[in-house]
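Hey, can you fold this one?
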Amino acid sequence: MTTPNTDMPAEDLTEAYNLHPSDHPGLMLVSTNFDGNGFGSWKRAMAIALSNKSKLYFVDGSLTKPQFLNVLAKNIVDSITFAKTARQMWTELEERFGQVNGAKLYHAKKELCTVSQGTDDIASYFTKVKSLWDELDDLDEIPSCTCSSA
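Sure. Predicted structure:
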């Protein structure tokens, strides 16, 4: 059995709208608000958080939902307030901030080349390096062909 306006099974829809007692409007899903920098990392963290709460449906296009404005900086919220669905907000954010930026790519590579352990313990140093590698991996995506073979 599916719902009338989605392709989701009814049990998935029930799970999507299920609220845990710890869920509330001011709940921080990720540790920092998105401020215009590091979109790839923020997007990945949001997708993981939403998936863990069975709420990814709201942004992947399979279900519409109320706005998720409490995880964005105010200046960014102001620019997407009038989007009609969470999917439209998500798409606008991805179009605006998800583009590979040559300056950011250069900065990430430069930072990776100059990182040093210094007085950090091995775990802190590893975390710093891993974070830089992940950022670089996100920025340096290999383009994929979207053309059809005729």
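The radius of gyration is 19 Å. Let me know if you want another pass with a different chain boundary.
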